[in-house]
Task: inverse folding
């Protein structure tokens, strides 16, 4: 089985797992009394947010190793992780406001997590733009690696500064869309969703990586090993 | 260490001498700053919001734009005359090249800010005399962070298409944490709050500077080497 | 004891949007790898 096929299978399983999450979340998980049905957005929003951030950290780590080892596989992985991270960021940035509107009364409030995800989204876009703007594969890999490392190191500062900024401002009305201690049934649904998103990440990255490999093989050129 | 500083200073001096001879970029940046401040005046309703509330924002947005403008020119000069190859072939270490560029950029931005701050005080009638020293301190801290990352990225985009635009796009997310710190400290200073209230943000700025100056000088060689 | 807020529409919207984004990306990957 080629890498592409493996990736497709994993993605298929992941999507089926996601479908199970949908069924469980919508039909078999209790409704949260204060927020109502909209709270169920949490089961998709939070796992997506976790993977948005993790994907960026993985881009950073792969970038560090790439600069030391110059292994093209690390560069391909970083590229794949960045693209998938962007997709997950999009999910967070769309489900976030959709959740925020009924709960906070407004589509956007510069909430710490949403703002951090927005900045992450811009980091991803910048990373992908730089990759698109450089012809030479060796230069592209190196420049992307530099940006990837800087992006990863920025993440803690984003969280810190946005958190400090947010605490100045009036908190969202009454309800905060987080559930610090989840009752068992809700926790199970959330964990299942996290598993689904993990599989989605793996499946997507595998396919995207395989795509990169195919393009390099056809003469796109991999970064030459120095 | 002494060699590093000596080399860095040589690079910085070359840039500074070249720039002060023609002064084009510097004058443009200063004029730009004055224009941005002017535009801000027309962009607000002075009867609706007291100036002092908007002052930190106006100051820092202006400084951010001015810094980005000066950063664009950082490597353009070398690129135009293929002088970069000359620099790289010389026994100059990559780290000293970075530090030299950083120092030169800091001087440029400092000159622009040195004109911008009095203009700001004049245009918006903002008393800063009583907090001038800490204000200059926070301006220096934030500017160092901006310019450290900006110098690295300006080398990175040097050979790409749409370099100026790409620089802005990849740099802006990195400017958010120091910007948050700078605006909050400035607001507190101008509002007559004791310095103790700004300590958290000052620590944020200091930590950012330490991390990103080190990171940028370490990563710089990957943006210029073949 | 207040009623549970009636906001099912938002929930549906979010679940649909998420599914659309993920399926669209999966399809995009599939088609791009067939083209290469």
Result:
């Amino acid at each position: 089985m080629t890498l592409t096929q493996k990736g497709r299978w994993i993605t298929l399983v992941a999507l089926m797992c996601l479908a199970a999450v949908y069924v469980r979340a919508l039909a078999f998980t209790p409704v949260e009394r204060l927020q109502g049905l909209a709270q169920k957005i949490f089961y998709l929003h939070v796992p997506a947010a976790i993977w948005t951030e993790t994907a960026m950290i993985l881009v950073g780590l792969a970038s560090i190793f790439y600069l030391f080892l110059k292994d093209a596989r690390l560069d391909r992985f970083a590229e794949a992780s960045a693209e998938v991270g962007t997709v997950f960021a999009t999910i967070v940035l769309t489900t976030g406001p959709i959740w925020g509107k009924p709960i906070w009364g407004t589509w956007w409030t510069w909430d710490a997590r949403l703002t951090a995800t927005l900045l992450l989204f811009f980091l991803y876009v910048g990373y992908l733009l730089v990759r698109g703007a450089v012809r030479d594969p060796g230069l592209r890999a190196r420049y992307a690696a530099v940006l990837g490392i800087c992006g990863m190191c920025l993440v803690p500062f984003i969280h810190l500064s946005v958190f400090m900024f947010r605490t100045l401002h009036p908190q969202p009305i009454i309800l905060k869309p987080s559930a610090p201690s989840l009752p068992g049934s809700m926790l199970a649904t959330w964990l299942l969703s996290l598993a689904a998103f993990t599989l989605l990440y793996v499946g997507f990255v595998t396919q995207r990586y395989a795509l990169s490999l195919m393009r390099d093989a056809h003469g796109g050129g991999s970064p030459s090993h120095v | 260490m002494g060699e590093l500083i000596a080399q860095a200073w040589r690079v910085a001096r070359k840039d500074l001498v070249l720039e002060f001879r023609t002064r084009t970029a510097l004058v443009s940046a200063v004029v730009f700053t004055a224009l941005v401040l002017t535009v801000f005046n027309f962009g607000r309703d002075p009867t609706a919001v007291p100036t002092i509330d908007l002052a930190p924002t106006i100051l820092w947005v202006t400084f951010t734009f001015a810094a980005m403008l000066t950063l664009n020119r950082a490597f353009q000069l070398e690129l135009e005359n293929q002088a970069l190859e000359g620099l790289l072939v010389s026994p100059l270490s990559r780290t000293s090249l970075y530090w030299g560029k950083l120092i030169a950029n800091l001087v440029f931005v400092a000159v622009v800010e040195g004109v911008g701050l009095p203009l700001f005080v004049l245009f918006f009638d903002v008393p800063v005399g009583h907090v001038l020293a800490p204000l200059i301190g926070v301006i220096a801290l934030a500017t160092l962070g901006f310019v450290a990352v900006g110098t690295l990225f300006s080398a990175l985009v040097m050979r790409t298409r749409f370099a100026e635009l790409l620089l802005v796009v990849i740099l802006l997310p990195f400017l958010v944490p120091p910007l948050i710190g700078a605006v909050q400290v400035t607001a507190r200073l101008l509002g007559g709050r004791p310095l103790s209230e700004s300590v958290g943000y000052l620590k944020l700025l200091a930590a950012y500077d330490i991390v990103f100056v080190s990171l940028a000088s370490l990563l710089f060689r990957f943006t210029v080497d073949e | 004891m207040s009623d549970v807020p009636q906001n099912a529409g938002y929930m549906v919207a979010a679940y649909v949007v998420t599914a659309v984004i993920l399926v669209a990306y999966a399809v995009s990957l599939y088609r791009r790898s067939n083209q290469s």
